[in-house]
Design goal:
545 residues, alpha/beta, six-stranded mixed beta sheet, four-stranded antiparallel beta sheet, 21 helices, 16 strands, globular
Length: 545
Amino acid sequence: MEFIDGKLFKEMLLSGMNNLGNHSAEIDALNVFPVPDGDTGTNMFLTVSNGVKAALDEPSDNVGDIAKTLSRGLLMGARGNSGVITSQIFRGFYQAIKDLDQIDASQLAHALVNGSRVAYKAVMRPVEGTILTVIREAADYTYAYTMTDDVTDCEKVMERMVKEAKESLDTTPQLLPVLAEVGVVDSGGKGLVVILEGFLSAMQGNVIQKKGEEKTEGEAAQTKVQAGEQEYGFCTEFILHLSENGMKHFSENSFKEELATIGNSIVCVQDEDLVKVHVHTLEPQTAIKMGRRQGRFMKLKVENMQDQHDNILEKEEEEKVEHKAPHKKYGIITVAAGDGIKDAFKELRADIVVGGGQTMNPSTEDFVSAISKLNCDHIFILPNNSNIILAAQQAQTVCEDQDIHVIPTKTIPQGLCACISFNPDMDVESNLEEMTGAIDTVKSGEVTYAVRDTTYEGMEIKKGQYMGMFGKAIVACKDDCMEATKELLDKMLDEDSELVTLIYGEDATEEQAQELSDYIEEHSDAEVEITNGRQPVYSFVIGVE
């Protein structure tokens, strides 16, 4: 195979996307911490599917044009660190072939190397033993092989790329000891490998198809975890009137498979230009966005089956407001899950609270959409999660004509402290200094449950036990939630502690929060503020200042 033309390139993209979708649950299960937030496979699939579907709609047969459309789609759909890094790999790939109608073996190898370089530049502190290592080693060794042996067959280049990527993935536990301890390889690296395997399969004449609705044991287990062994949080129903483009490309099976990445109880029925959809999901906004790409809504209903989740209907109504907000000097965009936490941010001058957090990482497009609603001279973004920072920074790059600052908050308590430190009467530099400095003044802790048996830093953890997490460390593991929380508090409190913010979630009670407040006052001189955050996943979120 001397060249890759536009037709083959699209087949490679489709095959890579489908292969990633087929393995997304397996990749989700590779998360190091046994908490219910293993979403690398899902994040990568939603990122890749957003880009690939745009690329498949690209009318040009020019490889450079297709790669450009792919790159833009990946960027806007990027979710989580793994999704953003994936988007940057293909951004670099596009930059290397943007003027080409088709690509030969050496150009393919060079484009992969350039993808690696651009991905590394996108990350402030690259960590080895991750997807970055896999793309760098695989691309560099493949390029050397291609040049040394004067390879002119594109298929041989991709065969070597897959081989090198697999070998690099297998070594990730040697570079990151935590992977070795838990007994897994890097999840992002695994995602990249299955994408490349999909590419190779298409080049060999076998475009991988998306598996049907039957779930593997791993997928069933993941669904059980996400659902909390109950139904999903929102019953989402809508009727779509397909657009002209939607009529041309819509597929019931493909749309059901896409919905299956975020929910269950799926029904999708097409009648000419109308489509009726039903899905139970924790991410109704994502389901709505999936539908919006196909046409316009004739009917839309979102019902909260747990009575304590985001009010999506209100948000959708807000999104329909086309006029710009009144002009002001500053705007704050933050990220949170749970109505109580969202209300707390709004009380602290946050203009827009993007729904999301653990298990629900917002995309670059979500941030761009939020930015478009503001009419401000300066905008601060608080991601409140380490896996969301890169997506926020990508939105900052997309909206380069606006003055946007991403404050690298990694937890809800950090975000709240940053908001408290904001002063609308100060200049931008002073606010940046105060808000960024506030991050270091608060200790953050969380209590959640283990989704599998594992060992972490010598601690035996059993599925179903409650874990107290202090920063990035698991410091408590108990069968009882309150015992785990009290042990976590013992680690967080010291003689300098002055204020404890105790945020209880949807599976905790006010009585439990009050018991913990009494415990804190008995064991320290700190004051306690209790908030009903109504957040999913975490029984308690704790900030100590």
